[in-house]
Amino acid sequence: MRSTDLLNIAKKFGDPVYVYDSEKIISQFNRLTNAFKSVKNLKLNYAAKALSNLSILRLMNSLGSGLDTVSIQEVKLGLLAGFKPEDIIFTPNGVSLEEIEEAAALGVRINIDNLSILEQFGSKHADIPVCIRINPHVMAGGNSNISVGHIDSKFGISIHQIPHLLRIVELTGMNINGIHMHTGSDILDIDVFLYASEILFETAKHFKSLEFIDFGSGFKVPYKEGDIQTNIEELGQKLSGRFNEFCKEYGRELTLAFEPGKFLVSEAGYFLAKVNVVKQTTSTVFASVDSGFNHLIRPMLYGASHQIVNISNPKGRERYYSVVGYICETDTFGNNRRISEISEGDILCFHNAGAYCFTMASNYNSRFRPPEVLWHNGKAILIRERETFDDLIRNQVDAKELFEPKKAKEAVK
């Protein structure tokens, strides 16, 4: 998108505001599809947790994507967006048996990641096919908070527990229709991913009625110009060949599934915020924006880097700034960033704001969550309104009758 388009959106809808470019989402979907074109049956299940706006889900559905969900609420959003139940997979972690049963009753695919729930579900619902999430004990990902396939992870059933898993399946008579893994996010080392895939293939041999193998996702996207990223084309070539070989060994064609989230929507997103104050201290120049980690928490939570551009003065002389928010705690978006000279009132644009940004926003400090705008076919379309004070108190119950203010004592005459 052009800076002028973004500035016009900020002017029309106010700031802060999230903007998503549908053209970029579509191109990323097509890129991933083309990388695995030699696989007969490919299924991309968009990870709803990355960006769950209803309009984005409808866009994914129109592209032929399935949907990866982690909560019953995401399942219901997917159904509302038009996904068929069989195109939704439910991959929760640590949820109750009741929530899994509720999802199963809606007809979606079930993915279970622990032996306790597997045994309980199989004992009651042996007729419902189940996918199993395996922990391959492979460390992958760009941050410990987003590396989920290692030995100390809470996710998945350990490969060392396969004998126990097989005993549960045999005793309950369950039908295992899929095997799944997810090692982490921001994967760069393709060989590590392929190594984990071999563990998944070995595990798959224990089950004779599989329909699909789900390799998760976590592909790294660039966060700045010249940044390193997952070589999807190389991964596609290597994994496709190995997958096709395994299908021949297995005796029939299976579906190769992925659950991309960040890869599809990260680069499509922009977050626009106005500069309230430029503050010079003895050692730093701060640019304070009308936002904080209540709207964009990734830099504080993950140490994530978002490129920051002054779209109000793109050709200005570059200076060093620390871009910070208005939360009454440290909420630094970027330290000592080289940015075109900033004046109060300028609009700063945070790149890679499509994934895990709005979906992790909150009302901390009783601030409103910003609107979302879709840039589609050259037009800016509002897909979520800015919150208001009424939204902030909508579900609160005011127990004012319990707390009558004390009456002031009458003055002594």
Automatic annotation (TrEMBL):
Record family assignment: Belongs to the Orn/Lys/Arg decarboxylase class-II family. LysA subfamily.
Required cofactor(s): pyridoxal 5'-phosphate
Occurrences of domain Orn/DAP/Arg decarboxylase 2 N-terminal (ranges): 24-266
Domain of life the protein comes from: Bacteria
Subunit comment: Homodimer.
Catalytic activity, as annotated: meso-2,6-diaminopimelate + H(+) = L-lysine + CO2
Gene coding for it: lysA
EC number: 4.1.1.20
Pathway: Amino-acid biosynthesis; L-lysine biosynthesis via DAP pathway; L-lysine from DL-2,6-diaminopimelate: step 1/1
Key words, A-Z: Amino-acid biosynthesis, Decarboxylase, Lyase, Lysine biosynthesis, Pyridoxal phosphate
Modification sites for N6-(pyridoxal phosphate)lysine: 49
Acyltransferase found in the keyword field: no
Root EC class: lyase
GO MF: diaminopimelate decarboxylase activity; pyridoxal phosphate binding
Binding site for pyridoxal 5'-phosphate: 218, 356
Its biological purpose: Specifically catalyzes the decarboxylation of meso-diaminopimelate (meso-DAP) to L-lysine.
Ranges of residues in domain Orn/DAP/Arg decarboxylase 2 C-terminal: 18-354
Protein's recorded name: Diaminopimelate decarboxylase
Alphabetized HAMAP family for the sequence: LysA
Keyword Aminoacyl-tRNA synthetase: no
Active-site residue numbers: 328
InterPro entries reported in the protein's UniProt record: Ala_racemase/Decarboxylase_C, DAP_deCOOHase_LysA, De-COase2_C, De-COase2_N, De-COase2_pyr-phos_BS, Orn/DAP/Arg_de-COase, PLP-binding_barrel
GO biological process terms on file: lysine biosynthetic process via diaminopimelate
Database matches in PROSITE patterns: ODR_DC_2_1
Binding residue positions for substrate: 298, 302, 329, 356
